[in-house]
Amino acid sequence: MLAKYDSWIYLQNVTVKEILSNSDFYADLLARNKVLGFVELRPNRRQHEEILVSLMRGEGDRSFGPIWDVTHPHLENVLPNMPDDFLVGHWHADNTVWEESPTITSMHMHTWTGEKGKGNTVLVDCQKLYEKCPSHLRDYLQDLMLLHRSGSNDPETGELAKGAVHPALRTHSVTGGTSLFYTGPECDPVDGETELFNEYKTWLNGTQVDGALYDQENQIQWEWSEGDLLIWDNSCMVHGFLGGWKYGERVFDKLEGQWAKPEYSS
Question: In the chain, where do the E strands start and end?
Answer without folding.
Answer: 2-4, 9-11, 35-38, 61-70, 101-112, 121-125, 145-148, 164-167, 169-171, 178-180, 187-189, 219-222, 229-233, 237-241, 250-260
